[in-house]
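Record type: monomer structure entry
Structure origin: computed from sequence
Chain ID: A
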Amino acid sequence: MINKERAKVLILAPHTDDGEFGCGGTISKFIEQGHDVYYAAFSACEQSVLPQFPKDILITEVKEATAHLGIKSSNLILFKYEVRTFNYRRQEILDDIISLKKNIDPDIVFLPTLNDLHQDHFTISNEGLRAFKTKTIFGYELVWNNLNFNTSTFFNLEDRHVQKKVDSIKCYKSQAHRSYANEDFIKSLAKVRGTQVGMKYAECFEVIRLIIT
């Protein structure tokens, strides 16, 4: 799928942690293979943080989590949009995504599936597609937000890649109360996706755009 010895891969995460949940294992594998991975998060969800945590806790956590996956600190880009307001700021978000396109010029883009129900995720998916329509785009699944998902591409993962994903998500202590933020769920989903294609573990993606050169 990657026909370059060293490709540029861009992860668009509406909120901190979405990229890890959606493609953390694949990120780990890409970095292991020597590709350059960039991660752009558009909100640290300060309005949703539980009262026992500092409002900016997710900024600290995303830095730790992405570093654990192997993403360089210089490749982490953080924007400051308020959670659940993205649909009101579509043009500003598109402008920021276009800037990412110009500055990074990625070969592959990962973003939430176009069928994601969350209003912020939906905005990032649609504006991301608008900006990167000439690039290969994969939509990642966040099963708690998806009524349906086209399981059209699978990335084979080894134990170490899945464990990296698990450990990166454990960095989000402020999100540990989520029903899907636990090792059993993460590994079980990876097993399900692996079983579908005769592998031990996999992450599954929707092919939104595929450019073959």
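Annotation 1: The two ends are 10 Å apart (CA to CA).
Annotation 2: The first helix runs from residue 18 to 32.
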